[in-house]
């Protein structure tokens, strides 16, 4: 019984520590701007930590270890190529005109008008409710690692406790509380993941050379298996492209707007991309070590095997790591939803001059609470992770990514142009999911995003446009950065 209680006590202690940190940093938030982006004076290291904590959910650790064991080299290549944080680093230097915004929908609204802004906010909220349900489901899985099948009722109530804690500090502390709890959570899982890799390595009896030789004899770890996979090459490429562009979403764009300027934002996502690659390599190694130690396992048996082969103390650490990764992703989505309701949806419906800032701030807190509770209910009644993840992608990539990227690169279209593109994205993703995806198994989000962008450009050049639309020159800050880069290259060449 002691071996079961040790991990649970560790989890409860971590939850209380997270609550204490969240409450401590909740004291100074008094305005919606502070609630959404803080004071824009965060250290680069802090922003890197919160960016990584937001991007790495608990499902990423669980799913990656399982799929490396199950799919082999194909999934390893997919994970290494699909590093999406560097995409934001490239976009960040072009986002100077939007750095005072609070959200991604506000940026789209500033270019295309209130209706595209409203659609963007609604689509993202729907996607994030599903995304929150995914994270709450993983919280339940992490707690089940502590308890096994001993007490289902205790697992249920502990999951509710963990969810209520993240809802509480997200609701009352805003992005400042989210950011500093993210730092704690990032430090936690960035220490525990390397430890898990070491533990799994010590569980295999083979040397490194023997392990490599063993993997080379396995068909799923040979390069020939990648091209001859049951998944078509086209599907592989589209899946990688979808994963790359799916990173262009509100919580990451919010981290850009939390930066003091585009230079800091670029550095944040550049450094975060490097650390993310390192974390990914460690997780891939865990999957490889598990495969070498027990190649015959089914997907469902992988994590029970891992937990069975480590000490109770280590089980507690792994459960804490999953909780840290999951809560740090969920609280950011919760905060983003609150901002989109109180800032974007309300202003799109009523107009910016009518809304009291105090009421906006109160509405943001209420929204965070309500959406968190709704997601928790959804997670207990609908816990199919794959269905929820597909829903998340379908609501965002085909609808909002193309208008946002075009705006960042200087396209200034009318509201009608953006609505045509969004409608095209919605229709194509529905048609793809209905007729193409069931027959081919290929995800169509990236194709539908391209259809959205092409429809916008076609509408812009074919239909009459109001004055002020078209392509604009880069802002002065970006021009100065380019000139500085040219001078650096000339000095190096000289």
What secondary-structure arrangement, pairings included, does this model have?
Layout: H1 2-24, H2 32-37, H3 44-55, H4 58-71, H5 73-81, H6 85-92, H7 104-112, H8 114-147, H9 152-203, H10 208-217, H11 223-227, H12 233-245, H13 250-258, H14 262-293, H15 302-308, H16 312-350, H17 357-381, H18 385-408, E1 411-412, H19 415-440, H20 445-462, E2 470-471, H21 476-493
Antiparallel strand pairs: 1-2
CATH architectural name:
Up-down Bundle
Give the count of helical stretches.
Answer: 21
Domain module count: 1
| Fourth CATH level, the homologous superfamily | Sodium/glucose cotransporter
Keywords: Cell membrane, Ion transport, Membrane, Sodium, Sodium transport, Symport, Transmembrane, Transmembrane helix, Transport
Protein name: Sodium:solute symporter family protein
Membrane topology: Multi-pass membrane protein
Catalytic activity: L-proline(in) + Na(+)(in) = L-proline(out) + Na(+)(out)
Question: Could you walk me through the main structural features you see in this protein, from its secondary elements to its overall organization?
Answer:
The chain is mostly helical and 494 residues long. The protein has one domain (2-390): Sodium/glucose cotransporter (Up-down Bundle), CATH 1.20.1730. It contains 21 helices and two strands. Helix 1 (2-24) runs parallel beside helix 16. The mean pLDDT is 88. It is a multi-pass membrane protein. Its main location: membrane. The chain crosses the membrane at residues 6-26, 42-61, 73-94, 115-136, 156-175, 182-201, 230-248, 268-292, 312-330, 362-381, 393-411, 418-436, 442-463.
